[in-house]
Amino acid sequence: MLAILCPGQGSQKPGFLTPWLDVDGVPERLKALGTAADLDLIHYGTEADEETIKDTAIAQPLIVAAGIVVGELLTERVREERVLWAGHSVGEITAAALSGVMTPEDAMRFIKVRASGMARASAAEPTGMSAVLGGSEDDVRQAIEQAGLTAANSNGGGQIVAAGSIENLEAFAANPPAKTRVIPLKVAGAFHTSYMRPAVADLQELAHDLSTDEPVTTLLSNKDGKPVTSGAAAAQSLVDQVTRPVRWDLCMQTMQESGVDRLIELTPAGTLVGLAKRGMKGVPGTALNTPDQLDELFEK
User: Is 279's pLDDT higher than 70?
Assistant: First the structure.
């Protein structure tokens, strides 16, 4: 079984969409998705600098749109394969669109509201996230809680991301759990925690108006790593995800239990196949970042 992975915020890189503009139909597709999100995706994906595309209101729609466009190109080539979809954080919206839960245009409208709300929530007070590498999982979780922080992302392979106030994160880093490294992440706020609650109301209202369908292929949830049961449940889960921790470790566990023997991560790729090297040892993965790779993947 093939698992197609959709990356989350922080995966974006300046100019990462440039090579894809040479593919027939891609510029037009990006313009259409950009119209749905009211954003010049081609500019931000090819010309904007690192600081500009770090803005949550830009980064999230850019990542989702890129994944949708590249994912559509990929699915044209894997129609005969058993496919499982999984997205990390904002990537779960990409996966929902590509698995048939919502239309790509609705996904872009959804991500516009999500990104704008989370950007406003992030600006309300200084918060952030730090990756905690190594140590005993139980000890790390206990230390995060005692520091007044939230284990916002459980990424498997010995990595948990702590989130909360900058003050608490700095105190945590100064006195880390045994045998760990604490690395501050370049994100705007404490995503997947109660700090993002102001972003929920508008997103909930939009979700009620969305037309959703059951996924046409297996779609895993960040909530518990299990397949979603309906389109409506998937949409509600995407709303809840704004303030709920991401359990990517459980998604990888389900992939292994489901017999996944191959991984392809959509552009901007690299993070999730990197996590899989530690969390899904022995399962080969490809970080799909250029159109040339599409031909190489299916030359056989």
Answer: yes
Please name the residues in contact with 299: beta carbons below 8 A apart, sequence gap of 6 or more.
none
What pLDDT, on a 0 to 100 scale, did the predictor assign at position 188? Answer: 85
Superfamily of chain region 125-184? Malonyl-CoA ACP transacylase, ACP-binding (3.30.70.250)
- In the predicted model, what is the mean pLDDT of residues 81-97? 94
SS3 286: strand
Query: Choosing from 89, 99, 116, 154, which is the catalytic residue?
Result: 89
CA distance 108 to 111: 5
What CATH code is assigned to 2-123+192-297? 3.40.366.10
Q: Is 154 a catalytic residue?
A: no
Q: List the beta strands (DSSP E) in 57-205.
A: 83-87, 127-134, 150-156, 159-165, 180-184
Residue 299's pLDDT is 65
Share of the chain above pLDDT 90, in %: 88
How many CA atoms lie within 13 Å of 143's alpha carbon, on the beta-carbon side? 23
How confident is the prediction for the chain on average, in pLDDT? 94
Q: Among the options 88, 165, 192, 237, which is catalytic? A: 192
Parse the chain into domains and list their residue ranges.
2-123+192-297, 125-184
Is residue 89 flagged as an active site residue?
Answer: yes
pLDDT the model gives residue 112: 96
Three-state DSSP state, 183 = strand
Instruction: With a cut of 60, say whether residue 268 has pLDDT above it.
Output: yes
Whether pLDDT at 80 is above 70 = no
Residues 6+ apart with CB under 8 A from 156: 248, 249, 252, 253, 275, 278, 279
Beta carbons within 8 Å of 153's beta carbon, 6+ residues apart? 88, 89, 129, 160, 161, 163, 192, 245, 246, 248
Beta bridge partners of 159: 133, 156
